[in-house]
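This part of the workshop introduces the protein records we will be handling. An example says more than a description, so a record of this kind follows.
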Amino acid sequence: MKQARTRCCSRKASSLDVLPTTRKSYRSDVSDVQWDYLCGLLPKGARTGRPRANEREILNGILYVLKTGCQWEDLPHDIAASPKTCHRRLLDYHRRRVWQKIVRALLQEADRRGYLNFTNAYHDASVIKSKKGPPRKSATPAITIFAGSNATSSSKRMGIRSTSPSPKPIGTTNAPS
């Protein structure tokens, strides 16, 4: 067990930068050298509002789930970040394109150090010929389900409408009542 350094050189120190307890280290944890490199790529939190959770622990939680393939709820309890926060932050990183910047920066650094060799790179694809051709129109009318302005094929929505003209329902008359 070791107490990891969480403070980044480009960020202002806060009470969240030091972990309150030591914990078991996992193979997916970010080392101090890796953290010094990656912390500059992460977005800074807002100056107002609730202080953000420990960024390094969140990154360790995200990397643990991505490496092991476990569900977010199965994140070990000794990682000092909640599974919900880790998942929400990963979605935020994707939305802000931070995750792509991290991957690009890591690939550029690996290429600069000579760790990448693209001479044996392969591209694989599967192509299946369609034997029956495009789908044909059937003799029965298609039924589309409408909910507001969105058409969907879900049977859980209300309001069924046929796309072909339908006769009047049985039992109606034109006689005045």
Observations:
- The beta strands are 143-147, 150-152, 160-162.
- Residues 149 and 159 are 12 Å apart (CA to CA).
